[in-house]
Amino acid sequence: MLKALRRPPIELLSGLHGNWKELCIKIERVNPVLNIKFIKWREPLDNYLKLNTDGCSKGNPGEAGGGGILRDHQVTTWLKDWLY
């Protein structure tokens, strides 16, 4: 499942020119919208391989890790590797 939070439109901030009170009032009125999209892994076409990867970091700079898995159309795992 993929979750994304939509940012308020930039028009919200146009024309304020340093008016902090008005800016704070507009920001308090923003209602964020949460969009949820269900995603599913699909096997690649015949005679193709699919590489799926993922990674993350703890700070910037900081500890990081990542990895990937390579599979064919029969979902046979060809290679998997994780780096930390």
Largest sheet: 3 strands, antiparallel
Backbone CA Rg? 22 Å
Shape: elongated
- What structural class do you assign from the helix and strand content? mainly beta
Topology as H/E string? EHEEEE
Low-pLDDT stretches = none
* Discrete helix count: 1
Helix content: 10-25%
Description:
There is one protein chain. The chain has a three-stranded antiparallel sheet, with no helix packed on it. A two-stranded antiparallel sheet has the order 1-2. It has one helix and five strands. The radius of gyration is 22 Å and the shape is elongated. It has 84 residues and is mostly beta strands. It has two domains: 36 residues, no CATH class; 35 residues, no CATH class. The protein is 11% helix and 46% strand. The model has no long low-confidence stretch (mean pLDDT 78).
Topology:
Layout: E1 2-6, H1 20-28, E2 33-37, E3 49-59, E4 62-72, E5 77-83
Antiparallel strand pairs: 1-2, 3-4, 4-5
